[in-house]
Specification:
This protein is mostly helical. Helix content is 67%, strand content 0%. Helix 1 packs antiparallel against helix 2. It is flat, with a radius of gyration of 17 Å.
Length: 64
C-alpha cells in the first residue's frame, strides 16, 4: 500500500478490528494491549449510533 494512503486507513473501523484480532490470536495480547484499538472502535460506534439516531428522528418527525 502506498505510504500516502496508509494514514487514511485510520478512519476505517475494520483496520482497528483486525489489529485487535491479530494481537489477541497471533501474539496472545491481553486486554491492556488492545485498549487503544477497542476505544477507537467504541468511538466509531458512538458516532455512528448518534448519526443514525439523528437521521431516524428526522425521518419520523415530518408530519404526513
Amino acid at each position: 500500500m502506498p505510504t500516502w494512503l496508509q494514514p487514511l486507513t485510520l478512519v476505517n473501523p475494520l483496520r482497528h478490528y483486525t489489529d485487535v484480532l491479530r494481537a489477541v490470536l497471533v501474539r496472545g495480547a491481553e486486554l491492556q494491549d488492545v485498549v487503544p484499538q477497542l476505544l477507537t472502535l467504541a468511538g466509531f460506534g458512538v458516532v455512528l449510533a448518534d448519526h443514525a439516531s439523528l437521521r431516524f428522528r428526522k425521518t419520523w418527525s415530518k408530519p404526513s
